[in-house]
Design brief:
This protein is mainly alpha-helical. The protein is built from 30 helices and three strands. Strand 2 and strand 3 form a beta hairpin.
């Protein structure tokens, strides 16, 4: 009975049986299942009408996996330029996990083709950086796992792959030094041998980028060789062989940085990933397994557009039967997109900052850092990024390190654009100085003090500083204090005073030594005196002493002129509600200035009176009441007795 019902269903739906057979075939077509020839797989894909169904997505996934595996297996140094367009024709965004898995398997099986696989990755990394980063994470994870399990073949393969990725600048040289030091931390026969092979593969690139770091590795090997306790004779011969390779030259010994036919990417186009052994690595193993995509057709269409941009294809070149008007429209489309492409996501800026930071932090001295940064080539108009990064790196240190000041001085004296960038940073840092902690504030102040003392930074930037009670805060006063104390320590108080008193630069330092009011003058004098630099305020003190006479003369002149016109007196003198007087010259007089004049008059009268002979005789004679107490013949004393 059931069989008759099934036959009835088949007659009612003749495609049901074919769909069921196709699904069973697809289940067997998974990894480890039955092999389906390509023509049958193509026929199965053509039979599927719903392009968004899970069955069709699984079929395309199997086709993608087989295509990527085939391309990786047949790539070599002679045909890599022909394999790359075919590889980009596949959906590498969807199959990036499959590509990384195929590359790692092929590299372990054929270590001699490692330079070819590294060159392939370097080209793909320029268009899809996520592929290079994912591959690095997986290789480093495999290296750590094999080192922990003492699996020497896998460990050697991982080291060789990393070495060639460093040569292609896909991986930063920091990971190479970390791996070498990890292997030599607790030396054994296997670890020293693997470290020696690793240095042979990437030694030429490390010597070019950071020779001092490579010297440190060789010093460690020399110490192991001299001790000779942890390694046997064979391993000692391996170390001696590495020294011989270094003496002869890595490229002359058969270990070039990049073979000639595999140098496919320009240095400025490459994207370098910095990955450390201490980082949390995400291998994304789920990318190797099929997963249903709810927006499958949309993602496929997006990759077609990306593929057309990468390979330079025209999306409409396959269409036929178009009229002449449509051909004219096609000619107009490239004209609309012929302009330069501007990156609005800020990716280039982030990569530039990351590269500058890594270069600054990896160099051993400021000369090496300056050479690397100049060789890297800062784009025109981006000099402010270099200045900002130097200031940020300096502020993050626990104590001030002169390395950053010398590096900033080198760039300021090299090009005026860098000096202007540092000047803009000074103004910006002073305006936001209240946001910095005390330690960061001290480091930034000492950095700018060095730049000013060495004349790398123009002294005109000091015009933004206004030393008044209203314009300064506690943070800004600390910044000014450290800045001028450091300048005094570098230049000396006399040289600093001579620079600040230069009449040609008086406008720059008007805010440092204000003369608009007696109150501000006293505040500036007290501030510099409290920080131990009172010698800078001698001119201000003299001016403050003469200020009452100047104001009195002005007041007298204005009073004499007030008899002629009332308007001139009202415009010349203004009395406020508090009783303070403001002269036309801009100086303020308050009760303190008037009391100063009265005090001077009282002191003059006392001095003139002290010179008279009567005053001197009165000072020499004892007081009258003392004479009365000593007089025993007084009537009151006789009564008491």
């Amino acid at each position: 009975m059931d069989r008759k019902v099934d036959e009835g269903e088949k007659e009612a739906n003749p495609h049901a049986n074919g769909t069921r057979n196709m699904s069973s075939r697809m289940d067997r077509s998974r990894t480890g299942g039955a092999y389906i020839p390509p023509f049958k797989l193509a026929q199965m894909m053509s039979d599927v009408t719903d392009k968004e169904s899970v069955e069709f997505q699984r079929l395309t996934w199997d086709a993608l996996r087989k295509s990527i595996n085939g391309l990786v297996n047949k790539v070599n140094a002679s045909n890599i330029k022909h394999i790359l367009p075919e590889l980009f024709s596949e959906n590498l965004v969807r199959g990036r996990g499959l590509l990384c898995r195929a590359l790692m398997k092929s590299q372990v099986a054929s270590p001699g083709f490692t330079p070819v696989y590294a060159a392939l990755v370097s080209v793909v990394n320029t268009k899809f950086p996520e592929v290079g980063e994912l591959l690095l994470h997986r290789i480093i994870t495999a290296f750590k796992r094999s080192l922990r399990r003492k699996d020497k073949p896998i460990c050697l393969a991982s080291l060789k792959f990393i070495a060639h990725l460093v040569n292609q600048q896909v991986a930063h040289e920091v990971i190479a030094f970390e791996m070498a030091l990890l292997l030599l931390e607790k030396p054994s026969n296997d670890s020293v041998e693997m470290a020696s092979e690793f240095i042979k593969e990437c030694g030429a690139k490390l010597q070019e980028i950071s020779s001092s770091g490579l010297n440190f590795i060789f010093d460690r090997l020399r110490a192991i060789l001299h001790e000779g306790r942890d390694v046997d004779k064979r391993t000692q011969y391996v170390i001696e062989g590495l020294y011989a390779v270094r003496k002869t030259g890595f490229e002359a010994s058969g270990y070039p940085v990049i073979p000639e036919n595999l140098d496919l990417v320009e240095e400025e186009d490459q994207i370098t990933h910095e990955v450390s052994l201490e980082d949390e690595l995400d291998t994304n193993m789920g990318l190797d397994v099929f997963r249903e995509d709810d927006e499958f057709l949309k993602h496929e269409e997006e990759y077609k557009q990306m593929k057309a941009e990468i390979l330079g294809e025209d999306s409409d070149e396959d269409e036929s039967g178009e009229s002449g008007s449509s051909e004219e429209e096609e000619d107009e489309v490239p004209e609309q997109h012929a302009g330069p492409i501007h990156d609005e996501t800020g990716t280039d800026l982030v990569n530039l900052r990351r590269t500058i930071y890594l270069t600054i932090m990896s160099a051993l001295d400021f000369e090496e850092a300056g050479h690397k940064l100049l060789k890297m080539g800062i784009p025109e108009g981006q000099e402010i990024e270099l200045a900002t990064m130097i200031i940020e790196c300096c502020s993050q240190e626990k104590t001030f390190i002169k390395y950053y000041a010398l590096l900033g001085e080198r760039f300021c004296k090299l090009k005026k654009a860098y000096a202007d960038s540092f000047a803009d940073c000074f103004v910006e840092q002073y305006s936001m100085i209240h946001r910095l902690e005390t330690n960061k504030l001290r480091n930034v102040a000492k950095l700018f003090a060095h730049l000013l003392a060495s004349d790398a930074l123009p002294w005109a930037v000091l015009a933004v500083i206004q030393i008044t009670e209203e314009e300064t805060t506690s943070s800004s006063r600390i910044f000014i204090k450290i800045l001028f104390q450091e300048l005094s320590e570098i230049l000396g108080l006399r040289e600093l005073d001579s620079r600040l008193q230069d009449p040609t630069c008086a406008d720059w330092f008007a805010g440092l030594f204000p003369k608009d009011s007696a109150k501000n003058m006293r505040f500036a004098i007290n501030f510099f005196t409290s920080i131990g630099l009172g010698g800078l305020t001698d001119n201000m003190r003299e001016f403050l002493k003469k200020l009452p006479q100047i104001l009195a003369a002005q007041k007298k002149a204005e009073a004499s002129g007030s008899s002629y016109t009332t308007a001139s007196s009202s415009s010349g003198d203004e009395y406020t509600s508090s009783g303070d007087y403001t002269s036309s010259s801009g100086y303020e007089t308050d009760s303190s200035s008037e009391s100063y004049e009265e005090g001077e008059n009282v002191r003059q009268r006392k001095r003139s009176r002290s010179k008279s002979p009567e005053y001197r005789q009165r000072r020499q004679s004892p007081p009258r009441r003392h004479r009365q107490r000593d007089d025993t013949s007084s009537p009151r004393r006789r009564e008491r007795r």
